[in-house]
Each structure stands twice: as structure tokens, then as C-alpha cells.
Amino acid sequence: MYDEILSAWRMERASESLQPLPRDFYRRTSIYFRQLVENLRIVDLDSISAELLKGELENASSLFTRLYRLRFDKIISKVVKNQELDRSSLTDEEDILVRYLKRFKEESDKALEDILNGREPKISIQDLKNRIVLVRFLKESPAIVGVDLKTYGPFKPEDIAYIPEENAEILEKRGLATRVKIT
């Protein structure tokens, strides 16, 4: 796993764009770190093995931290500039964080607009959680249980419905629905 972290860091550092990582990269990396720590517990702390494990843990931790921060900086930059992110380059965890960052950016932009138009900005944490969006179904879809634990559907092609944003994103990825922009 160390070699995979090193390779990913080198690729990320060499490019201005976000480099693809396997969707489960962070999960596997956490398992790797857990195993290093567990191995350190069972070896004689005065042994050469312990020194090698400590060195690997320190180096891998430093390298992974630099990789993580580099990717995070690139992601933040794209979101702030309203640039499109290639979601296939993201890990599962980054994909979720991007949604929150986009919501934060939207609420921040809305607050700025309110202030500039002489209105008091109204931001609530509820605005950032469980947002409902309008979608148009492209294909037939069975009923779904939303992240809010409510049942939605079943749906036929061209049906329009309000559903939780997280569920809408999943349906969009699967090609079952598309968001309807309201102006």
C-alpha cells in the first residue's frame, strides 16, 4: 500500500488537475494504517522490526497527509471557481465532501447576493441538510426510500417529483432521472 500512496502522491503533485484514485482508496489506506499500528503493538519495541515499522508509519503518514491536502486543495479550488469536477477521479469520501462544499458555496453566494441587495442574509443549517430538488424521470423506476426515510414513487418516464438531493444524484448517475432547474 505504501507504494500505491507514493505513486498517487507523485501523480497528483505532477499534475494541475485532479488525478483519478480508486473509489475505495481511503478505505484501503485506513486498513493499511490500522495494520501498521497493530503490528507495532505486537513486536518488541526495541527490535529492528519495530524501528522499521515506526519508520514506515511515519513516512506513510507524512506522504498520505501531503496527498490528501493536495487533493483537497484542488477540489476546493474547483468548487470555489464553479469549475466542473470529474467525479470519476474522486474517492467515495471525496464525492460526499464535494456535495457539502457545493452546498456551502451555494449558500455563501446566496448570502452575498442578499447582502448586496440590502437584505439580511438568512442561512440555516437545515438549508445545508436534506435539500429537496425537482427531478424528471427518464426511465421507469420503482419506489425508493429517500435519505429522509420517506418513500417516493414508483415513477414512469416523464414523471416529475421533488426528492432529496442525495437520492437525485444517485438517480442521475444511473441515468434514471435528471434535475429540473427552476428559474
Count of DSSP H/I helices: 6
CATH class label of the largest domain: Mainly Alpha
The geometry reads as elongated
Q: Biggest β-sheet, characterized? A: 3 strands, antiparallel
- Domain count: 2
Helical percentage: 55-70%
Strand content: 5-15%
Determine the N-to-C terminus distance: 48 Å
N-to-C SSE series?
A: HHHHHEEEEHE
Briefly, what is this?
The protein is mainly alpha-helical. The protein has helices at about 1-15, 25-40, 50-80, 90-115, 125-130, 165-175, and strands at about 130-135, 145, 150, 160-165, 175-180.
Describe the structure.
By secondary structure, the chain is mainly alpha-helical. It folds into two domains: 97 residues, Methane Monooxygenase Hydroxylase, Chain G, domain 1 (Up-down Bundle); 54 residues, 3-Layer(aba) Sandwich (Ribosomal Protein L9, domain 1), CATH 3.40.5.50. 56% of the residues lie in helices and 10% in strands. It has six helices and five strands. The strands form two sheets. Strands 4-1-5 form a three-stranded antiparallel β-sheet, covered by helices on one side. A two-stranded antiparallel sheet has the order 2-3. A hairpin with a 5-residue loop joins strand 2 and strand 3. The longest helix has 33 residues. The chain is elongated and about 65 Å long. The N and C termini lie far apart (48 Å). The mean pLDDT is 88.
Key features of this structure:
183 residues, mainly alpha, Methane Monooxygenase Hydroxylase, Chain G, domain 1, Ribosomal Protein L9, domain 1, 3-stranded antiparallel sheet, two-stranded antiparallel sheet, 6 helices, 5 strands, 56% helix, elongated
